[in-house]
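Training component of the fellowship. As part of building independent skills, the fellow (R.M.) carried out the full modelling exercise for a liganded target. The chosen ligand was iron/sulfur cluster. The inputs are recorded below so that the supervisory panel can assess the work.
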Amino acid sequence: MERTTVALKRYEASPDSLRELVQLCDGFSGLQPDLDVLIKPNLVALDDRHPMSLYGVFTTTRLVHDMVILLKEYGVERITIGEGSVRVKGYGVSTHRIYEYLGYPSLTKRYGVKLIDLLEGPFQKVDFGDCRLEVAQRALESDFLINMPVLKTHNQATLSLGLKNLKGCLSLKSRKFCHGSDGSLDHHLSRFVEKIIPALTVLDGIYGLERGPFVFGRAVRMNALIASRDPFSVDVVAAFLAGIDPSKVDHLREFAERHDRSLSLDAFDLRGTPFRELKKTLKWDNTWREDDTGPKAWDRIGVSGVSFPKYDKTLCTGCSGLYGPVMTLLMASYKGTPFDEIEILTGKTMKPSGKARKTFLLGNCMIKKNRKDPAAGQAVLVKGCPPSLEEVQKGMQACGFDASLDIYKMFRDSLMERYAGKAEFDETLFHFSA
Ligand code: SF4
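Fellow's submitted model of the complex:
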């Protein structure tokens, strides 16, 4: 089988590094100046209540700006940037607010770039064989889609790269559907790219994120850019670059099996900066105790009397983002004595153990499934889809935890301090500059 071309480039200067990268993979092949180009970055969600580090979480604004410069040099007139950033009650802001925060309106002023929120629709129902998903029409109709994901690890999907970034083209309803109780998340992730087809994928690995996908992970400066006209190839090479075997990434393995594609690095014609010079192993997840009652790290501290099973793939992004706050509040209220036999259940399929005095049910799915289960302890209902932080705090207090959102705020502030004063963490890469 012919090897697909994948370009690798160390990020050194704007816009030259990206220019070279695109040339190396002939990335603008098929692009005509009169085509309608859509750029899809990853601006997953912005927390408007707490400081949030964007390293390894968002596509850098610098790289998006560089792409616009290259497209203008090429003579392209119609350039649109489209993203559908997650916001739920009490968390997150609209995609347009995020664009403003990052300075994207300057791209409109200077280059005439159009900014759209893919969540505003309209959506088209697309047949994926065993289900129909609502996909933003704009993503389907663009003449030349440029996908610009980030190099991040992901607690549920192992990696969140180009194939997964396309989930941001779906309606919120369809995104939730992909986290169904049958645990088919990876199956869906493997298929978006069959209907939403990028002409070019440029992976932004200026920062990689360990133990992602949220801000609780740790960013690493990698300065790695990867591009190809073949989206799958970018993800496989990015997995190797992050030290993760792509055959262990379920959605990549499933795509490879369905399309008879190789998951070996030898299957790609790598051009540009030598692979070994960019490679950096990223840690991808926290390990849990064998009996699944909490993270392994709790053994060292001696936490007992509480069971917090590991998130599964049925948990949507909204509820998944609450694992960090729950964990923080729980740890902050641990005073060295056992908790009062509490279990915390999440997602769509978890079942009470029959051993707990109180059963904390996070979100409407868990409430519906377990509130009347005789095996549940006294049920503490944390309502919402997903619940707000205030609901989480209230529920934890009802379980006897000394839960305080002020402590959570202090923890979030401390996460920011990890990057402060370090030259490699450069905030200006995320905010438009000339
Ligand atoms: S309650 Fe949570 S897991 Fe259930 S649909 Fe809502 S966000 Fe998803």
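The panel noted the following from the submitted structure. The pocket of iron/sulfur cluster is lined by residues 176, 179, 315-316, 318-319, 347-348, 363-365, 385-386 (CB under 6 Å). The two ends are 44 Å apart (CA to CA).
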